[in-house]
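BUG: 3D viewer hangs when loading the predicted structure for this chain

Environment: internal workstation, default settings.
Expected: structure renders.
Actual: progress bar stalls at 90%.

Input used:
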Amino acid sequence: MHIKSFPLPFATSLLSDYLTDAPNIRSFFPTDFRNDWREVLAARSKFSLPRKAVQEALERQSRARGASAETLANIAKLSDPNTLAVVTGQQAGMLGGPLYTFYKTMTVLKLTASLQQRYPQYHFIPVFWLEVNDSDFAEINHLHYIDKQNELQRLSLPEGAHDQLKPIAARRISGEIGQWRQKLQEDFFDTEFKAAALDRFLGRYQASHSYAEAFAGLLNDCFRAYGLVLIDPTDDALLQLSVPRFQQALDEAPALYARFSDQSEAVAAAGYPAQIKPVPQQTFLFFQDESGQRVRIDYRDDGRLALNYPDKVQNVTAAELRQRLNATSARLLPNVAMRPLMQDSLLPTAAYVAGPGEIAYFAQLGALYRYFEIPMPVIYPRHSLTIVEGKLQKNIRKFALDYPTLLANRPDFIQYYLENFGDQTLYRALENTGKQIDESLEALQKIIETADPTLLSPLEKTRQSIDNNFQKFSSRITRSLEEKSKIEVQQLEKILANLLPDQNYQERVLSMVYFCIKYGLDFVDRLYAALPDAVDKHHVVEL
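C-alpha cells produced before the viewer hung:
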C-alpha cells in the first residue's frame, strides 16, 4: 500500500476551522484535539461514573457475542478510576455499513495506542457505541459495491409492515437476506478470498436475527484481536442507569431547550450552519411505547408532555408517563443531542472520534454539557480515505490526473476534462473558423450598407446558409471526436465509479466486503497497519 495525503476535499467551513484550530471555533470547542489533553483526561477521570455497573453490563454483552480475551481484559479495567475510554459510534449499517464505519474504528484504535504511549499514568480502552436507538431504517438497510462489470450495485432489505417507528435495536432481519449471498457470488469474479469473506460478512446476518447484534458481531469478528469493546445502549441495565439524567431532561425541559437554542443561534451567527435543527418545545428524549414504537416527547406550556405520533398527539402528565414507564415495557430513549450525554454519563470518555457531520453537531452540544455539568471529551476527527486499486492507477496516470482534481467531485468532470485536457486541435480550429467567418461577414455587411444596400437581404440569406452548413459540418466533426474519445470516456467513467460512486465519496458508499472479497480478510488489518496517524488530511491508499 502506498499512501498520498492532501487537504480534505469535502471540508466545510466549520470542519476546516476545526482542523486548523481557528480562533472563532474555540467558543464552541474548548480544546484543540492535537494538544489539549491533560486537563480533559484529569476531568474525565475524576468525574463520578457508575463504573462497576457499566463494567458488569459490558462483560455480559461481550461474552454473549463471543468477545476476545483482549476485549474482556479491557472491560475489566473499567473499575479502575484511571481507566479512560476512546469512543466512537455509528448506526448499524448492513454488513458493517459504509467504509467510514471501519475508518472510525481504526481511528479509535490508533488514538487509543497513541494516548497510552503519551499518558502512561492512565489506561485507555477502545469503545464502539452501537447507535441502534434510531428508527430510520432507510439509513441502514442497504449495501453498495462495484460489480465485475464495473457498475455500482445496491442491495436492500424491505421494512416490515409493523416495524415503522421501531428503533433498529427492536427489528429483526427479513428473509430476503438469504438472496444476498447468491447475488454477491454472481457479481464478483471468483477469488481465493470470496468464500471466506462472504462467510464473515454474511455469517452474522441471518433471517430473524437482530440487526443490532449482527452488526456488533461482525465488528467483533473484524477487530477481535484489538480488544475493541462494543456497547449496546439499549441494554436495560444501562438505560436504568441513565434514568436520572433522562428525568432531569424531562423536568427541566424548557431551560434545557433554551440553552440549546441559544448555542445553536451562536453557531449560526458565527457563520456555521446548525447540524441539529432546534425543535421548539423538544425534550431531547423519545418514548418507546408498549408496542415498541419510538415517538418524540415535547413539553407543553401548561406543564404537560406530548407524545408525537405521525397520526396523533397524545398528551400526558409527567406522573402518567412515569407510571407507564414503571408499569409496562415502555422506555425512555435519547435523541441525537442527548445520546452523547448518556454516553459520557456511563463511560469515562476521554475522546470521541467523530465524522464531519458529528463534529458540526458537537458545536451545538457544549451548552448541554455545561448544563448537566459533564466534562466534555476531546472531539477527535476520524480518518478519511479513498482506496485506489491498481487497475485504476494506470488510467489515472494515463490521463495525467491528480487526486485533488478527481476528488473535487465535479458533476461535469468528464466534459470538463475533454474540453480542457483532451485533444482540442479540431475543436479549436472549428471555433476559430467560426469566428473568422462571422468577422468577415460583418466587415462585408458594413461595406454593402454604403455601396449597395439592396444587397443586404441576399447577404442575410447567404449568412444563414453558411451558418446552417457550418453547424452541420461542426456536428459531424463533434460526433467523430466523441467516437474517438469514447474509450477515454469509458475509462474516466470507470475511475469515477470507483472513487466517487453515485457522485459521492467512496468512504460514504462502498462496503468493506468489496475489498475483502478481492484482497482477503486481512485487508482490514493491513489497511490499519498502513494508516498514518494524521487525521487532518485525506489519505489516498494506492493498492
